[in-house]
Amino acid sequence: MNNKILISILLIINLSISGWAQNKYTIDVSNTSIPLEKGHLKMGNPGPQGKEIEVNNLFMTIGGRAVLPVMGEMHFSRMKPDQWEDCILKMKTAGINIISTYLFWNHHEEIEGQFVWNNDKDLRSFIQLCQSHDMFVYPRIGPWSHGEARNGGTPDWILRKKNIQNRSNDIVYQKYVERYFKEIATQLNGLYYKDGGNIIGIQLENEYWYAKKGEPHIQWLKDTAKKYGMDVPLYTVTGWGGGSVPPLEVIPLWGGYADEPWIESVHKNVLPFYFRFDSFRDSKHIGNDQIDHKEEYMTYERYPYFTCEMGVGIPQMYHRRPVLSPIDGYAMMIAKLGSGSNLLGYYVFAGGTNPRGELHSNEEEQEETGYWSRTPVKSYDFQAAIKESGELSPSYHQVKKLHYFINDFGEKLAPMLPTLAKTNDDDLQLAVRSDKTSGYLFGLNYCRYVPKPERKDVLFSVQLDGEIIQFPQSGVNIPDSTVFIWPVNLNIGEALLKYATAQPLCMADDTYIFFQNKTITPELAFDNSAVADIHISKGTVWRKGSMIIVSDIKPGKDCLITLTLTNGKQQKLIVLTEEEATNSWLLERNGKKEFYVSKANMYAKHGDILAFSSERSIVVGELQDGRFTERVYTTESIDSRLSLTERPVFAGAKWLETANFKNLPAYQERYHRFFFKEFSLDNPSGFRKVTLYIYPETAGKLSVNYNWVRQDLVPDQLNAIDITGYVSKGENMLFVDFPYIEGKARFAARVIAEYSNYDRVEFSTDESWLTTDMYTNPSATRVYNRPEKPIVVEAPDFAKMVKHPSFGEWDIELPYGSLEGLSALYSHISYIGDRAEIYNGHILCWDDFNFNTPWQIGWQRMTPPMNGKNLRLVIYPLSKETKMFFDVMPGADEYEMTQVKSMNTTGENCFTIK
């Protein structure tokens, strides 16, 4: 044999991956091996006998059986309690089985010594509600949590103390943390897994980037938690950035995000390493202001590869406004799963709204706290799978497909080890997880911001222990933005599926369900030793050697493959389109799994199957005995009756007469007309800004609390006077001075007081602005006659045109009964501007940094309730001078202005599926 040919053959056999003619990939998994180690991790009570939760160096087990959990984060204190159940059920329907939740210390002890554990802070009720729906809970107790919360959740009163070292083993800090942990333990008492409850783990601290130096503090936190009864199967910390890990005492968890809105840059940010298979767990691209460690801190071979912060979305930051694709999180999760991760943890899976603070707002901000980023005051939408509004985002439907697969196939997948293809970033990304005799081929032809070429005529060869499986029979084309998981030697009941170029979705009704990836034509091959015959409604069946191959498959709900086994039994498979898989729902009713396909959203609740849609009529297909039965459900349409009206600055103000004189007598030529307004500012929070907006037709002067404001009132224009430094808590006195003039004149005014907790109160000119005419100025040291009722005059024609360039306002009217007959009411607002706010009375309910995509609002989530209220929408203009990054750029003419482009409102109907 020619030596060159011999060398080529040897290279092909021994390389773990190679490209043949640039379209064939070979992956050798026959020698993949990692010794299983168990019993070395110092965790807590594993739970009841036969149901023990334990962890080895690779995966988790429950009752000795391998599991691959899916964990999603929602924050109970960022959501109304009456919305918790809806969110829990949407998470459960998506295939989530563990709900993680941050505890923010300043949500529970904003004022020193005053703990709050009720209403939206009711941790215990939230955990019990999760248990009623068979969901595990994983509290992340801090005490520092971050979560884009103020001070990372640390109360201001801790940070104001001079004799304390925050986040350390300082004795003063320890005593406060110990008191806080004791409070948490009181709420958790009796709810631990060991007690028959659903709390299976505790995360200590967060992003504690002190490597070896920080280990004693993490150990102290764990010991203190256990001291007060927090005895759980799992103790974890975040591992990235040199996270401190006392050896074998806690498990480090990992994460990743498709963009970094916290970085200083305002340019496009490409992160290709999140879209490839890699055994490296750490990342320098989570969080900000990380401590730089010059040497490698530790290795992690003795710990399982678990994640807790994988994002289908990212938080909004003022200077960076990226918009993620629905596939970003899905592709990242498949990259982690293919790389060996055995717990997929999302942060956050459900968006929320920051609660109102008594003394200050609760978002991460820069001016008062000096923190790194500026986030919306209220919104914690996060572009999450479940939106702040309660709506399901497109990413929800993408990752749901992955979770269904993990839940049904995870027991076999969890012990499988990864073999990673050593391709460059430009090539098709590949990995195989296997037990040497079977496995799954993972593929990624996607990277955010980086278009990928279509891979032409691709073939695969997987070297197992004792056999090579090559597939498909002819090359397939893999388009850009394709991600896939294809099985190799998968047991389908008593049959053996040698390979499939379709992705397993789940099992239901004794049927294995697969789906097509993009436009790739599915092909399935079965070992003929157990299969006598195959019938397919849409495809071709043929034999090759020891395989029966099903090709030319046309996916769809009617694409049924029936295997007749050699023992006479039958096994059914269905191959759906990718769109049908995206619209699929795997639900449980009375202990039995039921499978549906519908464009409506669905979940199971207390034995009922419910569907939700803004449409009057929906189609639901149910899988029964291998075939879909479709039923149409209809309901009456309901008018939402929501309206939006632009509001001038002085819409609520009366115009008051300042002059109506002709032929003034000499003794009155130096007289003045004074207008007095007494007002109270009793909010417990401090002032953020207090502004007087006034439109006078003559010149005048202003006094607040008998201190003259040294800014003239310019006639015939809107004046915005900052009076923050003049007002005080409690009672205040404002008066305006207008010298007498010949002729007629009038004015209107409005005061807006904004507090540090973002409450906002206002008042405008009306009959309570009393008036008197005097020669001398009013003074706190002299007595003057009590002012009298002012003269109200007709508003000028231009009053409706008076606007201020720094904001625009609209009234939103929500009549009583707006939600009657609906499960939810949603509005999508498209607007021109930098950011927007919605107030319900004096309380800021929602806000938004404009991404130039519609702002999604769920009115059922408003606090306080919205029924019968006139709400206020405020929009602030975007300056051309502000340095920002946008994925979706504003129009060239959309700067320095505010405008509502559209507001589309839809009611969501609920259907009970029979």
Automatic annotation (TrEMBL):
The protein's name in its UniProt record: Beta-galactosidase
Organism: Proteiniphilum saccharofermentans
Keywords: Glycosidase, Hydrolase
Family from the record: Belongs to the glycosyl hydrolase 35 family.
UniProt record, GO biological process: carbohydrate metabolic process
Residue intervals of the Glycoside hydrolase 35 catalytic domain: 61-403
Pfam families for this protein: Glyco_hydro_35
Top-level taxon of origin: Bacteria
First-level EC class: hydrolase
EC number(s) per entry: 3.2.1.23
UniProt-recorded Gene Ontology molecular function terms: beta-galactosidase activity
InterPro entries per record: GH (IPR017853), Gly_Hdrlase_35_cat (IPR031330), Glycoside_Hdrlase_35 (IPR001944)
